[in-house]
Amino acid sequence: DGGITQSPKYLFRKEGQNVTLSCEQNLNHDAMYWYRQDPGQGLRLIYYSQIVNDFQKGDIAEGYSVSREKKESFPLTVTSAQKNPTAFYLCASITGGASDTEAFFGQGTRLTVV
Amino acid sequence: GESVGLHLPTLSVQEGDNSIINCAYSNSASDYFIWYKQESGKGPQFIIDIRSNMDKRQGQRVTVLLNKTVKHLSLQIAATQPGDSAVYFCAENFEGTGRRALTFGSGTRLQVQP
Fold first, then answer.
1. Can you tell me whether residue A102 is helix, strand or coil?
2. What is residue B63's three-state secondary structure?
3. How far is B35 from B107, CA to CA, in rounded Å?
4. Which terminus of chain A is less hemmed in, N or C, by CB atoms within 10 Å?
5. d(CA A90, nearest CA chain B) in Å
6. Which chain B residue lies closest to A108 (C-alpha atoms)?
7. Chain B nearest CA to A15, separation (Å)
8. In tens digits, what is the pLDDT along chain A, a chain of 114 residues?
9. B87: helix, strand or coil
10. CB–CB contact A42 B106 (8 Å)
11. Cβ–Cβ gap B34/A40 under 8 Å
12. A114 touches B at CB < 8 Å
């Protein structure tokens, strides 16, 4: 079935470590996004990519990095510069067509700093 | 920057009643809006969308109303069921040049009492 797969579902990070969250989609969507969600709050945009080999900072990009080497993949690295990384991370993709901008979400990765 | 926001963090309704969840948006250039449902620990799921050239759109048990004059969006759920209990987010998208990602509000938790 087509969809978006995020892995791992749960991730634990020691302070000072970088960790990479995986996001893969087989929907043939052009655009992919990373959002952060804190408890009881909405989704905040970290980074987005509208085309392969190109990406843009969102509202809270500091302490994060991304790459978009393949259309299907948009990994997010949470670096040691991110001071409060514990959160629920959601990846989404959207087809590039103007007539359809519905975002499909993965099931999320819950990152905890230990 | 401009943002989308919700007025009520929690809405409690009796099973069988109708629910109305409200959302205010501030970007007058936004031309596409979506309502998402998020269950605990899962990614958001698409419920219904509406474009700015429409005032109302109906789905199965759900209706979205758009008032562009006051920049207000609402989601109406008919005959609310226990399975409707979740957090609901509205999101806006601007599809002009320099297209960007969906911007989400902070969410409203809907609690359905049996």
1. coil
2. strand
3. 10
4. N
5. 7
6. B43
7. 24
8. 569 999 999 999 898 899 999 999 999 988 899 999 988 778 899 999 988 999 999 989 999 999 999 999 999 999 998 989 999 999 999 875 544 557 789 999 999 998
9. strand
10. yes
11. no
12. no
Residue of chain B whose alpha carbon sits nearest to that of A107: B43
Are A5 and A97 contacting, i.e. CB atoms less than 8 angstroms apart?
A: no
**B105 and A35: CB-CB below 8 Å?**
no
Residues of chain B with pLDDT under 50: 1-3, 5-8, 97
Does A102 contact B91 at a Cβ distance shorter than 8 Å?
no
The first and second tokens of residue A34, run together, are 């990373």
In 3D space, the residue among B66, B71, B69, B65 whose CA is nearest the CA of residue B26 turns out to be: B71
Tokens representing residue A102 in the block: 């519905």
Q: What is the DSSP letter of A73?
A: B
